[in-house]
């Protein structure tokens, strides 16, 4: 194993060995894309050491041999005694690593070590219900002089569990060779960013179709989305926080940019609610975070967590330095740059539909660029408050619109256009064929697009705004190399 590889987490594909020839095919396909394989031998009906030995020579890469018990999430169908005998047989094949559960006896481990002293023993524990408060207790109960690597796998109930695991791995990896991540959908951040916090192995599924466990990221996605083999403990972390975040494409854009520009950084999604913000900030400071993108519904709620941000109405970017967290908003710049590629806004009449975080930023930027603004929103009080603050006009969905509008910016979610009254109200404005920016993504098949298609208005896609605001974020994070 080369030194460079040792300094980073080893990308390891988990191979459920159902039959030997299939495992041979699967490992051959992925050989150049991973650093190691874990052969899950509990999937075999019968363990045949000659066939395993042949498979090992064929793979010719660092290998973990595992015969996982059902209690720890495996599928071994015979008695515990038989399982332990299988583990001993595997050890005689002198693999690079062997994985045994936390509850095998200390004597068994000591004996295993004598069979093949050069094999590194991984002792692992799996928690399927939650992530226990005291992870140190789990580690403490596994310590053994013959064990080289400790593996602690728990279940995340929310993203904060995953961050707690990352923080713990970061701390423990100073004194032990450690693997820690959380199972479950909320555990994704720990599986992805673990490579930057000291995880010895980063486990991957063979493909998006062949997974031993749900929510294991595939080798393909680790390599093509996260470029995980380029990451190490010096990697800076960036994340999108908010809820919902499923449809966001930010991780694709930012990780691709980091890869292209050879920037040692990683971007992932963190589902966070307003109630979790205070705890999030603790982890943000202890982990190597350098920036956050903020999305709904946190753009305004996050202001309560920040000091000296009185002048801001909404935040979509946080830059994290050792001394402080700096808040900015790039939504306004992104939206206005996207519009001004088609039409300059100075002295033009611009209507913003919505009064949330994105709307605030867009109104602010549009006023600075000399546009005449009006605002309309479902909760009229919010629109009125904004209109008073910016000294601009406020419309109501209860009255038919009667003014001329050059540009319409929609910031409502597309589901809002299921409301016939809203569609009818909007059509009153479209006779003059204004330019329409729908800040949502995938507008091709949107309800709004469907409602306005007969008016042949020029429309600008939310993706255009997204790219422009994302580049502005990179600039704030000091990563824009253009
Ligand atoms: N393209 C980009 O780069 C980009 C950037 C930022 C945001 N976005 C997208 O823009 C959207 C808005 O983001 P945001 O941060 O401004 O969200 P937000 O702060 O939660 O504001 C949402 C706005 O939509 C209104 N709304 C929500 N559901 C509605 C419904 N069923 N009917 C009528 N009005 C409804 C809200 O009205 P009330 O005040 O009455 O609740 C509010 O004005 C999101 O979909 C986000 O993904 C895109």
Question: Can you offer a commentary on this structure?
Answer:
The protein has 482 residues and is α/β, with parallel strands linked by helices. Helices cover 35% and strands 21% of the residues. The strands form three sheets. The protein has an eight-stranded parallel β-sheet with strand order 7-6-5-4-3-2-1-8. The longest helix has 15 residues, at 462-476. It binds NADP nicotinamide-adenine-dinucleotide phosphate. The site of NADP nicotinamide-adenine-dinucleotide phosphate has 26 residues, from helix 13, helix 14 and helix 18.
Task: Describe the structure using short key phrases.
482 residues; 35% helix; 18 helices; eight-stranded parallel sheet; alpha/beta; disordered N terminus; six-stranded parallel sheet; binds NADP nicotinamide-adenine-dinucleotide phosphate
Task: Lay out the secondary structure.
Elements: H1 3-7, E1 10-16, H2 20-30, E2 36-40, H3 49-59, E3 63-66, H4 80-92, E4 97-101, H5 106-115, E5 120-126, H6 135-140, E6 147-155, H7 159-172, E7 177-183, H8 188-193, E8 201-205, H9 219-224, E9 236-242, H10 250-260, E10 265-271, H11 277-286, E11 289-294, H12 298-301, E12 317-320, E13 325-328, H13 331-340, E14 349-353, H14 357-368, E15 372-376, H15 380-390, E16 393-394, E17 407-410, H16 420-427, E18 435-438, H17 447-452, E19 459-460, H18 462-476
Parallel strand pairs: 1-2, 1-8, 2-3, 3-4, 4-5, 5-6, 6-7, 9-10, 9-11, 14-15, 14-17, 15-16, 17-18, 18-19
Antiparallel strand pairs: 11-12, 12-13
Helix pairs in contact: 2-3, 7-11, 13-14, 13-18
The structure holds NADP nicotinamide-adenine-dinucleotide phosphate (NAP).
């Amino acid at each position: 194993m080369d030194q460079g590889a040792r300094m980073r987490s080893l990308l390891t594909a988990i191979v459920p060995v159902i039959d030997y020839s299939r495992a041979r095919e699967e490992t051959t396909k992925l050989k150049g894309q991973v650093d190691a394989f874990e052969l899950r031998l509990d999937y075999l009906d019968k363990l045949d050491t000659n066939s395993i030995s042949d498979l090992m020579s064929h793979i010719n890469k660092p290998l973990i041999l595992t015969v996982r018990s059902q209690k720890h999430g495996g599928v071994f169908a015979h008695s515990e005694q038989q399982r332990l005998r299988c583990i001993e047989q595997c050890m005689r094949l002198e693999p690079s690593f062997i994985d045994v559960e936390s509850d095998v006896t200390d004597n068994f481990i000591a004996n295993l070590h004598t069979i093949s002293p050069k094999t590194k023993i991984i002792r692992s524990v799996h928690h399927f219900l939650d992530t226990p408060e005291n992870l140190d207790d789990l580690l403490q109960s596994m310590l053994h002089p013959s064990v080289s690597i400790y593996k602690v796998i728990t279940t995340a109930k929310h993203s904060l569990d995953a961050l707690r695991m990352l923080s713990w791995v970061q701390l423990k990896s100073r004194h032990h060779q450690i693997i820690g991540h959380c199972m479950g959908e909320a555990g994704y951040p720990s599986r992805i960013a673990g490579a930057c916090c000291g995880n010895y192995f980063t486990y991957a599924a063979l493909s998006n179709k062949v997974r031993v466990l749900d929510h294991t990221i595939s080798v393909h996605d680790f390599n093509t989305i996260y470029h995980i083999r380029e990451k190490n403990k010096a990697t800076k972390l960036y994340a999108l926080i908010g809820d919902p975040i499923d449809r966001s494409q930010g991780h694709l854009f930012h990780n691709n940019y980091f890869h292209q520009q050879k920037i040692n950084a990683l971007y992932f999604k963190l589902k966070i609610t307003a109630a979790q913000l205070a705890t999030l900030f603790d982890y943000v400071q202890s982990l190597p975070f350098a920036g956050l993108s903020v999305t709904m519904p946190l753009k305004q709620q996050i202001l309560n967590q920040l000091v000296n941000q009185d002048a801001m109405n909404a935040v979509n970017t946080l830059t994290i330095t050792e001394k402080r967290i700096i808040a900015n908003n790039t939504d306004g710049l992104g939206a206005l740059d996207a519009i001004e590629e088609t039409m300059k806004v100075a002295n033009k009449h611009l209507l913003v539909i919505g009064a949330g975080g994105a709307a605030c930023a867009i109104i602010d930027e549009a006023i600075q660029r000399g546009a005449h603004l009006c605002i309309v929103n479902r909760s009229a009080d919010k629109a009125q408050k904004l209109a008073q603050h910016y000294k601009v006009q406020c419309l109501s969905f209860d009255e038919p619109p009667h003014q001329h509008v050059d540009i319409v910016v929609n910031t409502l979610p597309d589901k809002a256009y299921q409301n016939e009254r809203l569609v009818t109200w909007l059509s009153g404005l479209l006779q003059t064929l204004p330019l329409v920016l729908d800040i949502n993504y995938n507008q091709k098949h949107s309800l709004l697009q469907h409602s306005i298609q007969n008016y042949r208005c020029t429309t600008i896609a939310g993706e255009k705004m997204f790219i422009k605001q994302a580049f502005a974020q990179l600039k704030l994070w000091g990563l824009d190399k253009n």
